[in-house]
Design brief:
The complex is a heterodimer.
Chain A lengths: L4 E4 L3 H10 L4 E4 L3 H8 L9 E4 L9 E4 L2 E4 L5 H6 L1 H6 L1 H12 L2 E4 L2 E3 L3 H4 L3 H8 L2
Parallel strand pairs in A: 1-3, 2-3
Antiparallel strand pairs in A: 4-5, 6-7
Chain B lengths: L5 E6 L2 E6 L10 H8 L18 E4 L2 E4 L11 E4 L14 H8 L9 H14 L8
Classes of the chains: A alpha/beta, B alpha+beta.
């Protein structure tokens, strides 16, 4: 892979600031499977100059429900969604879908499964043309 | 700019301090670092897209795909590669390695390190897994 700057965001505020400051030349990295795969294949219209690591931000895997609806933190793992009491109780379809995806996923270890959709999506011409503009 | 200067890794019990910009670049994957920088050639790169599992290593005891992981994000982690399974004192292979040999569980063998390490992570967590899991 072509190199890039790599920065750790320690809070959501910091991540948003870094993202804005880089004016469209940065990408966020969480798990990394999808992003690194598309970087290796040079699929994105522009190669990012900076990668902002958000996986060390605390509590970003939290799942909660308030008046605005269900909120799933961007670092929430599929298993955490499937086993979340609030999802299981009030959003059974989502809990079942998450569990179904897990059942067909490859178990890697404790709380770690390889499930990825963006990498497959990004290879679909319709998605690339309409979402990525390429 | 990167906000840390070095990356500490412990691979199979040996500690390494890697200088960012010299020993390791932000775009280096853990698989590249293990193979090209540290010489642990037992870790294989096959699809390089996190699909095949040949590059699987153990990170703090859990199986991870080292080709889809940036080394700069592995600071302070303990890694076990296939080279780390052998008992250094006795020279005995790990039970899983020996079982693979006893049952001729190889085809070409290229991805076997990943299979063995995935199996180890699974069995460490669940010694009697069902066929499904």
């Amino acid at each position: 892979m072509k190199s890039f700057y790599h920065v750790d965001a320690k809070t959501v505020t910091e991540a948003v600031k870094l993202f804005k400051d880089n004016r469209g030349t940065a990408k966020l990295i969480a798990g990394g499977t999808d992003l690194l795969s598309i970087l290796k294949d040079k699929i994105l219209p522009a190669y990012p100059e900076t990668i902002i690591n958000i996986k060390i931000i605390p509590n970003l895997n939290q799942i909660s429900e308030d008046a605005g609806g269900l909120k799933i933190g961007t670092l929430a793992k599929l298993e955490e969604i499937a086993q979340s009491p609030v999802v299981k109780e009030k959003h059974k379809l989502l809990a079942n879908a998450a569990q179904a995806a897990l059942d067909d996923a490859v178990p890697l270890g404790k709380n770690s499964y390889k499930v990825t959709i963006a990498r497959e999506l990004v290879r679909v011409p319709f998605y690339r043309l309409n979402v990525l503009g390429k | 700019m990167p906000d840390k200067k070095t990356i500490s890794l412990v691979v199979n019990g040996t500690a390494y301090e890697l200088l960012i910009g010299k020993d390791v670049f932000p775009s280096d994957t853990l698989a590249q670092t293990l193979r090209d920088t540290l010489g642990y050639l037992g870790t294989k790169i096959e699809c390089d897209h996190g699909s095949c599992g040949a590059c699987t290593v153990l990170m703090d005891g859990e199986a991870v795909l080292s080709c889809t992981m940036l080394t700069v994000e592995c600071d302070g982690k303990k890694i076990t590669t296939i080279e780390g399974l052998e008992n250094r004192k006795t020279g005995e292979l790990h039970l899983l390695q020996q079982a693979f040999i006893d049952h001729t569980a190889f085809q070409c063998g290229f991805c076997t390190p990943g299979i063995i390490l995935s199996a180890k992570a699974l069995l460490d967590k669940n010694p009697s897994p069902t066929k499904r899991r």
